[in-house]
Design a protein that fits this description.
about 240 residues; alpha/beta; Glycerol-3-phosphate (1)-acyltransferase
Length: about 240
């Protein structure tokens, strides 16, 4: 029997994605004064989940620019119900970033599809960008993280790197079609593992453990907003390619 994960094609970074990433870094540096903190927390040579607050389509732009040399491994999850409405838009965005369809439903079929999809990305050694709020905030305030992030991290045996993005909502809030030049900051924190499950864990207890993990992850992301700049922050702004 074939591995279910093999049924999903994981997009590779072609020349259009590499060009788009280079342009994103140049624009972020020159127009948005992108500041990157904590880049050393991104594990090299291993797949992981990268979880950030989500208030704008500019979040994807910021992450593509802020992750530097790690950026070629990024996989962005696009909600199928959102992107499937406009095939041309989906095709165009897929030429700019590595985009894979993700089901936002709560049913068993959606969960199985998403786990199989993420397993394929993990097996390809990719960095999976996940926005645990589930959708963009309309006012820039962080919403509660959904417990599914704990389930995905545990089932896939992946560490989770928290990230706080600042300035993206002011740059391109939900409902606005064209971005404005705003200063951006991306702050990464140390990886956070899911606590081990106790023996004979019940379904409700597992759900509570996932919910507690999501709350702790959100607390870490919130705390990153006040992280002081590192001594080499200016270097990272000037050269976001630095790992």
């Amino acid at each position: 029997m074939s591995d279910p994960a093999s049924a999903h094609a994981v997009p590779a970074s072609g020349w259009t994605q590499r060009l788009a990433a280079a342009l994103a870094r140049a624009l972020a540096r020159t127009v948005c004064g992108l500041e990157v903190r904590g880049l050393e927390h991104l594990p090299a040579g291993e797949p992981f989940l990268l979880c950030a607050n989500h208030s704008s389509h500019a979040d994807t732009f910021a992450l593509a620019a802020a992750t530097g040399a790690h950026g070629r491994r990024l996989i962005f999850l696009g909600a199928r119900d959102y992107f499937s409405r406009f095939a041309l838009r989906t095709w165009f965005i897929g030429r700019l970033i590595n985009l894979v369809p993700f089901e936002r439903g709560f049913g068993l079929a959606a969960a199985k599809h998403n786990l199989s999809l993420l397993a394929a990305c993990r097996d390809a050694g990719r960095i999976i960008v996940l926005y645990p709020e589930g959708t963009r905030s309309t006012d820039g305030l962080m919403r509660d993280f959904k417990p599914g992030v704990g389930m995905f991290a545990e089932k896939l045996q992946l560490r989770v790197v928290p990230c706080h993005l600042a300035g993206t909502h002011a740059m391109l809030p939900k409902g606005r079609n064209f971005p404005r030049a705003r200063r951006l900051r991306a702050t990464f924190g140390p990886p956070l593992a899911v606590p081990l499950a106790p023996s004979h864990e019940t379904g409700p207890a597992r759900a509570a453990r996932y919910a507690a993990y999501a709350a702790e992850l959100q607390s870490r992301v919130t705390a990153l907003a006040s992280t002081p700049p590192a001594a080499d922050a200016a270097r990272l702004v000037a050269n976001p390619l630095s790992p």
